[in-house]
Amino acid sequence: MSLKPKIALLSVFVSAGLLVAPAAQAAETTAATVDPRPSTAKLAFELHKLAVLSHGKIRVDEIGRSNEGRPVWAARVGHGKTRIQYVTQQHGDEPLGTPAALGFLREVGVGNSAWARKLLAKVTVDIVVRANPDGHERDWRFNYDPDATPEYGEKGKGYDINRYHDPAVAPKDNPATEAGLIQRRNAAFKPDIMVDYHMQGRYQDANGREITASTMWPTHPGVKPSDVDFAKQIAVVVQRSIDGNGGYVSQYPGGSYQGIARNGYGLLGNGSVLIELSLIPEREQQQIQDARASMLAIARAAADGSVRTVDPADADAIPLRGPALPGSVEEAHEAA
Question: Is there a contact between 234 and 269 (Cβ–Cβ < 8 Å)?
Fold first, then answer.
């Protein structure tokens, strides 16, 4: 069955009351195992199901197509003045931000709790959910472009999307198709905060404690100091939320190239932050929950203004990421 008939059938089920009630469904989902790598078709179905269950609070849009013609989806929830953008899975083999985004949308958009109503009156959250569907299909880092001879990427495979957010390059001239779609969405949405979700290998700190996630702010010298400070405040919110959820956050040793999303959107004045979830198979479900917790914490801190009360210097105290965990496969790509 194609997607459109499925969505139409879903609408009938919701209208007839044949689906689980939203509150019960949310509780059920929290306890259940989350699909860490939903298929392209399942992702589309889940997004549209959330739109239906939310009675229109969650708006789902196709923002464009990948090089192989797969839809790239964005979901928006809330109507508040402060604007937050999350992006997941620019690298196709780094999937866990995507189910976290589905969980976040379900938690804030389905049901009618007082706290969610208050949150969504203060913020608008826009999520590009799985920016790289072709890379997801191949379980590789790049998009798919067999004609690519990229500066960043791999010849005959495709572009590393997260090297093509240079503000000096217009979306229409961007050789990495999906990066151009994110650029357009960002320019139209004009977010105050932009957070990009990735994955890394397994690392430890200087004392041998395993790191479950890393974060970093813009490091390009052209980003305004006030925008760097705001990004640092967001990074501290990320650290506190994930550490408070049982994780352990370090700084990410990222580069300063302007095409990296956290730098490119920082140059545009966004509070721009990177989050890297560690690849820990035995902790995969908790990694998804940590990412979801960070999404919720950022939204709440932006809604009540508490993010602006954080001391940016606290970001510099986040532990440094140390060496790869013994026996693990060290990350093979340059810093995100």
Answer: no
Q: Are 83 and 189 in contact (CB under 8 A)?
A: yes
**Which residues of the chain are under the pLDDT cut of 50?**
1-2, 5-6, 9, 12-31, 332-334
CA distance 235 to 311: 11
Chain Cα centroid distance, residue 227: 20
Contact 143, 178 (CB under 8 A): yes
pLDDT in tens, 267-310: 999 999 999 999 999 999 999 999 999 999 999 999 999 999 99
- The Cα–Cα gap between 31 and 272 comes to 32
Q: Which contiguous run of DSSP H or E holds residue 290?
A: helix 284-304
Task: Point out which residues pair with 203 in neighbouring strands.
Answer: 211, 324
Question: Residue 272: enclosing H or E segment and its boundaries?
Answer: strand 271-278
95, amino acid identity: P
Percent composition of the chain: helix, strand, coil (DSSP 3-state, to 5): 45, 20, 40
Q: What is the pTM of this model?
A: 0.91
The two tokens of residue 332 are: 């093979």
- Maximum distance among all alpha carbons in the chain? 57
Place of tokens 């404690």: 209
Type and span of the H or E element at 206: none
Residue where the block lists tokens 């389905």: 110
Q: Contact 116/60 with Cβ under 8 angstroms?
A: no
CA torsion sign, 184 to 188 to 193 to 197? negative
SS3 273: strand
Closest Cα to residue 258, out of 168, 154, 152, 143? 168
Token pair, residue 191, equals 């977010």
Question: Which residues neighbour 256 within 8 Å (Cβ) at sequence distance 6 or greater?
Answer: 219, 220, 221, 263
In one-letter notation, the amino acid at residue 320 is L
**What is the distance between the terminal CA atoms of the chain, rounded to a whole angstrom?**
38
User: What contacts 106, CB < 8 A, 6 or more positions away?
Assistant: 25, 26, 29, 50, 53
> 136 is written with which tokens?
């997801």
Angstrom distances, CA of residue 160 to CA of 154, 176, 188, 262: 8, 8, 23, 14
